[in-house]
Please model this.
Amino acid sequence: MHKKDEEIKKDKEIEEILKQLKNKEQLINVPKTLLKKEEWGLLTVLNLILAGIFPAYFVQILLVSFFTELGHLYTTHLTEEERKKLIEFEKEFRKGYEKEQELKWKEAIEIYEKLVEQYTKLNPKIANIAQQRIEWINKNYIK
Model:
């Protein structure tokens, strides 16, 4: 009988522990509301505030204007001389591209190589465009 009393006591202790765990679980599982189930970032809150203040089309216009001006900060402003060089490069580059369209890969590479030689000293960034095109043709079409 002594063993049965110990078993009953252990069972009651286990039941008590389980009740405590259930109580803690109920405290942790607070019912989800709109604010608790969604992640609210700064942009979301800002958009909601703006939507309450301004009409939707006005907010879109503001955002487009903002990103356009942000793009202007990253664009390179060319001088008139640099712009002319870029236009000349584009005309020659187009000839190489047309050769690519005709599947004349070697002729296209020859045109691009001339551009690389011509523009390496004048503007390395422009010359790099032609160099990348040569590498791309060699990689994908010439083995």
